Amino acid sequence: MDMRRLVGRNVRRIRLEKGLTQEAFAERSGFSQQYLSDLERGRRNPTVVTLFELATALGVSHVALVEPDGEDARVTPLRRGGQRKESADKALARNAGGASKATMS
Amino acid sequence: MDMRRLVGRNVRRIRLEKGLTQEAFAERSGFSQQYLSDLERGRRNPTVVTLFELATALGVSHVALVEPDGEDARVTPLRRGGQRKESADKALARNAGGASKATMS
DNA sequence: TGAGTTTATCTTCTATAGTGTGTAAATGCT
DNA sequence: AGCATTTACACACTATAGAAGATAAACTCA
Questions:
Q1: Does B48 contact A47 at a Cβ distance shorter than 8 Å?
Q2: Which of B3, B6, B63 comes nearest A67 by C-beta?
Q3: Model pLDDT, residue A6
Q4: Are the C-beta atoms of residues B7 and B63 closer than 8 Å to each other?
Q5: Which 3 state secondary structure label does DSSP give A47?
Q6: Total number of domains in chain A
Q7: Quick one: pLDDT band at residue B69, thresholds 50, 70, 90?
């Protein structure tokens, strides 16, 4: 279980679902775009406080950022009615459907 | 939402439920007893990797360590002025009910 | 083809996570 | 009383989280 990559995937997925660019997310979260890039690629090991601030900026619970996502959800061999998410990260990159072109111009 | 304290409470509660001392938990987790003491008292800001290692050593999911526990869990719109729950932690130290004396030496 | 937008990568820097050692404060046991 | 166990607290130290800046790579669309 690679926590860095798990958090990275969750952050990227949720960010894209919200239709935010890394830059727009950076502005509203206070983290730099560079840091978010590293984070989403699993190169960073955020603290629980950082986790909470990221989740708050994304409008989700901090728990959502550490929840297994199917890519490497090992510890639970049996799942009963859980969520099945097998879509690729890239697939989400298309467009979240909502706001594109995050503010600013 | 004080993530440091939330994680601290969860770790302490689960550790005591398992009937482990900080020292016994330190041995099986690889963290020092001093660090665990700080952690449980909300003085530390662990990374997600640390969170996972702690959870693994406790035999629970890493999600359990960040799950709201009622103390400051829900986004209680009601007044959140009082966190005078100081002695409550000690109350747990009495005995977790199950295994006592963590299979030492 | 080139400009604009978005993300990845590099370097330098400060703050702090986590280690190691020691010890004090409690609590418990006989 | 004493001794053992458990937890709290201090200090110095190394590794890294996260900030700040600039820029390269990549994709989008005129």
A1: yes
A2: B63
A3: 94
A4: no
A5: strand
A6: 1
A7: confident
ipTM: 0.75
Residues A41-96 pLDDT 10s: 999 999 999 999 999 999 999 999 999 987 764 444 444 333 333 333 333 333 33
Ramachandran bin of A20, using left for φ above 0, alpha for ψ from -120 to 50, beta for the remaining angles: beta
Instruction: Report the CATH number at residue A17.
Output: 1.10.260.40
Contact B3 A67 (CB under 8 A): no
Look at residue B68 in the predicted model and tell me its pLDDT.
Answer: 92
Question: Do the domain assignments include residue A22?
Answer: yes
Q: Could you give phi then psi for residue B38, rounded to 5 degrees?
A: -60, -45
Q: First CA to last CA across chain A, in angstroms?
A: 40
Asked if the structure places residue A77 within a domain, the reply is no
Domain span holding position B52? 1-67
Domain annotation covers residue B80: no
